[in-house]
Every structure is written in C-alpha cells, then in structure tokens.
Amino acid sequence: MVTGGAGFLxxxxxxxLLGMGNEVLCVDNYFTGRKxxxxxxxxxxxxxxxxxxxxxxxxxxxxxxxNLACPASPIQYRYDPVQTxxxxxxxxxxxxDIATRHDIKILQASTSEVYGDPRVNPxxxxxxxxxxxxxxxxxxxEGKRCAETLFFDYYxxxxxxxKVARIFNTYGPTMLPDDGRVISNFIVQALLNEPIxxxxxGSQSRSFCYVNDMVRGLILLMxxxxxxxxxxxxxxxxxxxxxxLANRIIxxxxxxxxxxxxxxPTDDPLQRRPDITLAETILKWHPQVNLDDGLNSTINYxxxxxxxxx
Length: 310
Ligand code: NAD
Ligand code: UDP
Known about the structure:
The chain is of the alpha/beta class. The protein has one domain: 3-Layer(aba) Sandwich (Rossmann fold). It contains nine helices and 13 strands. It has helices at 8-19, 74-77, 81-102, 138-158, 182-191, 211-222, 242-253, 277-282, 291-306; strands at 2-3, 24-28, 47-51, 64-67, 105-111, 161-167, 170-171, 196-199, 205-207, 209-210, 232-234, 239-241, 259-262. The strands form four sheets. The chain has a seven-stranded parallel sheet with strand order 3-2-1-4-5-6-11, sandwiched between helices. A two-stranded parallel ribbon has the order 7-10. Strands 8-13 form a two-stranded parallel sheet. Helix 4 (138-158) links the parallel strand 5 (105-111) and strand 6 (161-167). Helix 1 (8-19) crosses helix 6, helix 5 (182-191) crosses helix 9 and helix 7 (242-253) crosses helix 9 (291-306).
C-alpha cells in the first residue's frame, strides 16, 4: 500500500513498484494528488486505487505500507494547517495500527524539515533540529516530528517493523506547475519569460534530489534488515543557493526572465544539506542523477505542460 500514491513522489513510487512485479494499492484523498498522475497505471491488473483520507481508520490487508500521504509544498500544507497535522499524526496512528495488526513493515516519509532551520551543516541523523513549534511551518514540521515519535513508540512498545526516511527536497517530472515549490516556480517562470521570484536575498540553500534516486532509496530502505529502522537521510548532498538555482535554470532554458525579490517567508530555513553517510553505508545508496541532468528532464516535462508542446 502506498498512501499519497496519487501525489508527486507516490505516483513515481507506485509505478516503480509495479514495474518490479508488485501488486500496489494506492490510497489517496486527492488533496494535492491528481488522478492524472496515476491514470497510466489503471490498466495494470496489479494496480488498485482507493479514495480515502488516512486521518480516518482503515481496515485493509496488505503486506507493506509506504506512508507518503501529506501535502509537501509550503503553500499547500499551510492551506489547512489543522488537517496537515492530523494527516501526519492521526494518519500515522491509523497506518501504524494496520502494521501492528498484520505484523508488516511500514515506511514513513519523514522530512528534512524535522531539522527546522538547522544550526549545523550538513545535517546528520544525530542532529535534533531547531524547530519553531508555533510558527506557520509548524503544522508540517511538528506533525512530521510527532509522526517519527509515534513510529519509534510503536517500534519499542509493539515491535512494529518501522522504516523512517528523512527526505530532502525532491523534484522531477509530474510536479504540479502551481504547487509553489521553488523548482516548479522557477522553471515555469523561466519558460514563460516571466520574472523569477527570489524570496529574500536568495542566499538560502537547498540540496535537490531527482525523483528516481529518491524512489530507489525508499525501496532499498523498505527492503533493508528489520533492525534498520532509520531515521535515514535520503537526499542529494549537492547544495545550491536559490540565486544560483535561478541563474542555472535561466541559462538552461535560455530564458529572458529577470529576477525579482520578494519577502522571505517566516521561518524559511537558511541552509539544508543532507549528510548521507548512513544511507551510503547501510543501503549502499547514492544519488546518481546530477542537478543539470535532473533539471533538463524536469524542464522538458514542464515544456509539455506550460508551452503545450509534445
Ligand atoms: P504531494 O503533495 O505531491 O503528495 C502527497 C499526496 O498525499 C497527495 O496525493 C495528496 O492528495 C495525498 N494526501 C494528503 N493528505 C492526505 C490524507 N489525509 N489522506 C490521504 N491522502 C492524502 O507531495 P510529495 O512531494 O509527493 O510528498 C510525498 C511525501 O513525501 C509527503 O509525506 C512529504 O511530506 C514527503 N516529503 C516530500 C519531499 C519533497 O521534496 N517532495 C521532501 C520531504 C518529504
Ligand atoms: N523559494 C523562492 N522562490 C520561489 C519559491 C521558493 O526563492 O518562488 C525559496 C524558498 O523561500 C525556500 C526555497 O526556495 O528558501 C525552497 O522552497 P520550497 O518551497 O521549494 O521548499 P522548502 O522551503 O520546503 O525547502
């Protein structure tokens, strides 16, 4: 079962799992997901879809759960912050209850946001983070932190086989053009020759992982030994400022776009780069797609959406 299977990461994961010969149940309430993301999978006899909100208990027999359901873009998780926290917390409880009942493995899509605005760079799993508990990002950050707490309490209390992946910024084809994340915003703006919106001075950094690398990492983590609970960072350690990213996208797309500066959102982390030593050691995982290659394939995808060319 893949919760959030109609979302950006979830749909790529469903596709990969089906390609590996698995039967996949995609569970989604279509808050930020799209039927269009999974429509090409519907003919596959091993694929099933269930419209369901994971904040509501579910009775289903499956043998592995990837729990990805949760809006991930700041504008989307801030749209209904109470529901965002419920999705992380009530959703985790409901999915962990299924895992407990059936004695199966469950993987949580956690996030680099558990490190908040980090005071150390790069971030290793041992870092406890610097998170504002009451700010506009807290519904997501603290919801995901509480979900991690629940996963480890179900592990210690009930012996549930948990896997916690701390996912760093991931991008690629099928991201929504209007979901507000930086890669989709910059590419769409560049393709339309519109101003590129830099928040703050653009000196804040992120490290972007291509979606195929991330999906491979998640599947490797699920297949790891039972004592490999994580949390494990998954991300690409190549760190870049938002100003550098904007200029790179302008260059690749040969765009006439100019930069415009907008206020930095509250609690926007200044830096983010994963220390992936643990994933390299225990999963033998390392990202393979460099930023230029990943941007090129993402830009080609957005050309078909935004410029309506095939
Ligand atoms: P997304 O918004 O594209 O996908 C989330 C999916 O969850 C959507 O299909 C949405 O409809 C579904 N969903 C939301 N609330 C639900 C609910 N209550 N019940 C059922 N379905 C629900 O986001 P994404 O980028 O694919 O992220 C997937 C997961 O990975 C999320 O849990 C996110 O926190 C995590 N993550 C993603 C990134 C990233 O950069 N993409 C980074 C860190 C963590
Ligand atoms: N950002 C930006 N312009 C945009 C969208 C985002 O400068 O049009 C910045 C944002 O302030 C943040 C970074 O890009 O510093 C990454 O933002 P995103 O929302 O993609 O992810 P997150 O903040 O959750 O890492």
